[in-house]
Amino acid sequence: MLDADSEVPVPLGVRLTLGRAAVQTIADRAGVEVLHIKGNAVDPELRVATAIGTDIDILVEPSDVALLDRELKRHGWRTYSTFVWGSPFGHAQTYAHDVWGYVDLHRFFPGIRLDPARAFALLGRASHQMVFAGTPCRVPGVVEQAAILVLNAARGGDGPDLRRVWQDAEPERRREIEGLIDALDARVAFSAATGGLEAYRDERDYRLWKVVSEGGSRSAEWRARVRAAPTLQQRLRIIARVPLVNVEHLSHRLGRQPTRGEIVAEFFARPARALGDMRRSRARGRR
């Protein structure tokens, strides 16, 4: 018999299943449309046997993002990283819950250049339900899931995913995936995952996918982000953030909220690290 101070760890698979059900219940009550993607929401025919992920990923109908953000926070989820600072693409916001762990709320999927609302509709056109802890959750069709996994692999995702859904796929399935990729205007990212990226050197997001898929310095990433931005206003916003300290990242690194002094120290340390990154990158290039 367990005493009052004993703790029993919840297996990851159980937590993810219950967490998906919890998020879906919140979305249903709020009238929010979501698609569950990646991890244990991938159809068995596409999923690598042991790949269930470590967190919950959902793609949200863009007009519902603000509403679901409020509802998640109202039910005990707290912001872990924001759209602005979470990734080079600004595509997802991460929330943490003391019981259910982490959920990534995607307002669009990286690499898809089609308008997010139209892309959401396209990815959900052949959707079906998977049941988690007795709760029906909507997932994309198999071809749509395969396209998402290939695009995810362009950001350094699991090699087994890419092999299973693309390299080992039948020719007919490959044609279906490529047709969807074209409809989503996602050729650049797709090529970063499958090969042939150099054919898209003139595209505005080529350099960003080059850095993301092959590696590069932080300064190279920032330059690529500026170039990839579709409008002048977005480019100026990115440029304005370049000298700022990513307080979220610093907090995660320290395991606590940084002090003002630590933020100031980080502000002055960043240029030295950037210079070191550039030197290492040039040395690798020479080699």
CATH architecture of one domain: 2-Layer Sandwich
| End-to-end separation | 63 Å
- List low-pLDDT spans: none
The counted number of beta strands is: 7
Q: Please write the string of helix (H) and strand (E) elements.
A: HEEHEHEEHEEHHHHHHHHH
Classify the beta-strand content into a percent band: 5-15%
Short description:
With 287 residues, the chain is an alpha+beta fold. The chain has a domain at 7-140: 2-Layer Sandwich (Beta Polymerase, domain 2), CATH 3.30.460. It has 13 helices and seven strands.
Tell me what you see in this structure.
The chain is an alpha+beta fold and 287 residues long. The protein has a domain at 7-140: 2-Layer Sandwich (Beta Polymerase, domain 2). Helix content is 52%, strand content 12%. It has 13 helices and 7 strands. It has helices at 12-30, 65-74, 83-86, 116-123, 142-153, 159-167, 171-183, 187-194, 206-214, 218-228, 232-241, 247-254, 260-286, and strands spanning 34-37, 56-60, 78-81, 92-97, 101-106, 128-132, 135-139. The strands form 2 sheets. The protein has a 5-stranded mixed sheet with strand order 1-2-5-4-3. A two-stranded antiparallel ribbon has the order 6-7. A hairpin with a 2-residue loop joins β6 and β7 (135-139). α1 (12-30) crosses α2, α5 (142-153) packs across α6 (159-167) and α9 (206-214) runs antiparallel to α10 (218-228). It is globular, with a radius of gyration of 20 Å. It starts with 11 loop residues before the first helix and ends with a helix.
